[in-house]
Specification:
Elements (H helix, E strand, L loop, with lengths): L1 H14 L7 E5 L3 E3 L4 E7 L17 E15 L2 E14 L3 E5 L3 E2 L2 E2 L3 E6 L13 E8 L4 E3 L4 E9 L3 E7 L6 E16 L2 E14 L3 E5 L3 E6 L3 E2 L5 H8 L5 E2 L4 E5 L3 E6 L12 E2 L1 E8 L6 E2 L4 E10 L17 E5 L3 E6 L4 E13 L3 E5 L2 E7 L4 E7 L2 E6 L14 H15 L11 H35 L3 H19 L2 H15 L8 H5 L6 H12 L9 H9 L26
Helix pairs in contact: 3-4, 5-6, 6-8
């Protein structure tokens, strides 16, 4: 019966794999006017996803004007990533707040979205009666922001006649960092009864000092498409008629437009703020995860923890490194933090990811201190804190036997010690006169029990002295011994993930001043055993059923991994990302 339960659970996990596919939905704009269109973008990262979005749920509130889809495949470091996108053009039937419900895609579904549809305004910015004009807007709308806070700058080009070419100049802002967000958005809208094409561009502006901040006008230089007319008489017209083209386009009119200038008031960091770092944001999240799920701690054995700090409206360069207090009874070995910045087209999201190995040096209950990051809530205008609470763990004995606090002798040891003392001080036993064979057998059995207790006591004392000697070893040697023990077990079990982690921990303790951060760097030091290390690295990212054997790596490790002195800097390869641009730049 128990086997049947396990089999059913395994079958359920296999069937539900498709439910873990990451299917997300976003809107090209969250707020539009009546008679405008909006693009719903559905994206899936499951290469086994064969289903199409079920758009029937949209028919109540929207007209589906058209759909198109695309697929992308990326292979980075041997890992394949598949992404499929559907672009659905929608026209809302009603004004107000309209809900886009969850859309089924195969065995998964998107999350619901909210779209705000406003009534067309009776008037818009100056120049709206022209065939082409520019609008700019900012958020916060009251033109007041904190230093280093993200200012959302939106630029819109409206035109109802065809453009042959065009480009933007700006925004160029002094004493501020300006970053363009995502690609241009294109859509249609109605202004005062006229149909316009719109090109929308978003920028993030980060003031670097308090006071008045001037965002100068953005300049658009372009040329309208010329009109079509019949050619005049002559050889050219004869050739045109012969080629079947009776119309030619005249040179278009050159245009130059300027947006309005915007002035903001940038406030300095408030005096009441007592945080160590100034982080103005709408949302700051601090979270952690353990590499192998909820971990079990053993003395002398490392456990890896990954801590992530993410802030909305701040770049990764604005975020501090995460401060990691060292618990009593543990040593910590942090790796180099990773800094990344992403955008959803309107907001910047900066994040710092820190991996750290905790190595307990004592058994029993140990408290890992809390981690706290103070920040300024720009929405509620108050200081707040993101906290990872303190965590109490129970450290069990480890294979390496590294313990700092030895337990007191138990009652059995005390009894044995007392018995040994009495036996040692007593004179040699002589067989008493008239003692029966049964009594003599009981006496011999008692002596044998005392000797056995003596041997157990001496063996326990030897183990305790050995463990105490381990504790007085330098921290580096403790880390080396723990990593060697973990590597030996991983090679015996043919476990490439654990072997890679143990090998890097060993290298960090062996060469603390210039520790390699990945297997590729370790193999290129170069060291003896580079071939085996590269085979381990390939096994981590190989596709298919390739099975790694750890005997060869353990053999060269036992012979010693020593760096070979080379001349010249280490080679670093890298590719810069490429970003395609729109025709209107």
């Amino acid at each position: 019966m128990k086997f049947g339960n396990y089999f059913a659970l395994l079958l359920l996990l296999l069937v539900s794999q498709s439910l873990w596919a990451d299917v997300a939905a976003t809107l090209s704009r969250n707020t539009i006017y009546a008679d405008d269109t909006v693009t719903l973008i559905i994206e899936s990262d499951d290469r086994n996803q064969s289903g199409e979005p079920d758009l029937a749920v949209l028919q109540q509130n929207f007209e589906v004007l058209g759909t198109r889809n695309s697929k992308q495949v990326q292979i980075v470091n041997g890992r394949r990533t598949d992404r499929q996108q559907w672009h659905i053009e929608l026209a809302p039937k009603n004004t107000g707040t309209v809900t886009i419900p969850a859309i089924p895609v195969g065995n998964a579904a998107t999350t619901p979205l909210q779209l705000t549809v406003k009534e067309q305004p009776t008037a818009v910015a100056a120049g709206s009666d022209q065939p082409i004009f520019i609008k700019v807007s900012i958020e916060p709308a009251d033109a007041t922001a904190w230093v280093q806070q993200q200012i959302q700058y939106t630029l819109q080009l409206y035109f109802r006649e065809s453009l042959a070419e065009g480009s933007f100049d700006g925004p160029n802002v002094e004493n501020a960092l300006v970053e363009r967000l995502g690609e241009d958005r294109r859509y249609e809208t109605t202004v005062n009864g006229e149909q316009y094409q719109v090109i929308e561009r978003h920028h993030a502006i980060f003031p670097e000092q308090s006071g008045k901040l001037v965002i100068p006008a953005v300049v658009f230089n372009g040329r309208m498409a010329g009109a079509l007319r019949k050619p005049s008489t002559g050889m050219g017209s004869m050739l045109e008629r012969f080629m079947g083209n009776n119309l030619v386009r005249t040179p278009g009119k050159r245009i130059r437009l300027r947006s309005k200038e915007i002035i903001l008031n940038v406030r300095a960091r408030p005096a009441s703020y007592d945080g160590q770092y100034w982080l103005p944001s709408e949302q700051v999240v601090l979270r952690d995860s353990w590499a192998e799920g909820p971990p079990e701690f053993h003395a002398g054995e490392p456990v890896t923890r990954t801590i992530t700090l993410e802030a909305k409206g701040l770049e990764s360069s604005h975020l501090p490194d995460i401060s990691l207090p060292e618990p009593t009874g543990m040593r910590i070995y942090p790796e180099k933090p990773e800094h990344t910045t992403r955008t959803d087209g309107e907001w910047v999201y900066g994040s710092t990811k820190q991996a750290v190995a905790y190595v307990p040096t004592a058994m029993g209950r140990i408290t890992i201190p809390e981690i706290k990051v103070d920040w300024w809530d720009t929405d509620k205008q108050q200081q707040r804190s993101a906290v990872l609470p303190a965590w109490e763990v129970n450290v069990l004995p480890g294979d390496a036997g590294l313990v700092e606090a030895l337990p007191p002798p138990d009652p059995v040891d005390a009894t044995a010690r007392e018995a040994v003392t009495k036996v040692t001080d007593a004179p040699p036993a002589e067989e008493p006169r008239g003692v029966s064979s049964l009594q003599w057998s009981l006496l011999l059995a008692g002596l044998a029990a005392v000797l056995l207790l003596l041997l157990l006591f001496l063996q326990r004392r030897k183990q305790q002295h050995s463990a105490a000697a381990e504790i007085h070893m330098p921290a580096g040697k403790q880390q080396l011994k723990a990593a060697e023990t973990l590597l030996a077990q991983a090679c015996q079990d043919n476990d490439p993930q654990t072997a890679a982690r143990a090998l890097l921990q060993w290298a960090a303790a062996k060469w603390p001043d210039d520790a390699p951060r990945n297997l590729g760097s370790l193999a290129q030091q170069p060291v003896t055993g580079g071939k085996e290390i590269r085979e381990l690295d390939q096994a981590l990212y190989a596709t298919g059923s390739q099975h790694w054997q750890g005997a060869a790596l353990w053999q060269v490790f036992r012979q010693g991994l020593e760096p070979v002195v080379t001349e010249g800097p280490a080679r670093q390869d890298g590719l810069s990302p490429l970003y395609p641009d729109w025709k209107v730049r």
